[in-house]
Design goal:
single chain; Beta-lactamase Inhibitory Protein, Chain:B, domain 1; 4-stranded antiparallel sheet; about 30% helix; globular
Length: about 100
């Protein structure tokens, strides 16, 4: 029986090792807010859905005059970062990029 217990643990250890080696976790997450991704947004054409696909869920959402909505994204990784603010109309179409800042990028 004592010889059987180590044999029974082998599948457990193999499963644990394979789970840790195939994980998609990274110490350096992929940056979503970049100059090139912001350039893909076009006033009058791009929508809130397009922005969320590119940048993820906004960091903040503010209701503005006339039913417009201001979405903001902030992303800081190490000593670099980005902040953008995009204004959308009440139907979800982009009006304008109101602010963009890139630090160390």
């Amino acid at each position: 029986m004592k010889k059987l217990i180590p044999l029974l643990l082998i599948p457990f250890f193999i499963g644990t090792i394979s789970c840790t080696t195939t994980s998609s976790y990274s110490l350096y997450p992929k940056r979503k807010v970049t100059r090139s991704s912001v350039a893909l947004m076009t006033p009058g054409v791009s929508t809130t859905d397009d922005a969320i696909k590119l940048f993820g869920l906004p960091t903040s959402e503010s209701n503005m005059f006339g039913g417009n909505v201001l979405y903001q994204w902030q992303e800081y990784i190490g000593s670099t970062g980005a902040h953008i603010a995009i204004l959308f109309n009440k139907s979800g179409t982009m009006i304008e990029l109101q602010h963009k800042t890139f630090i160390g990028m």
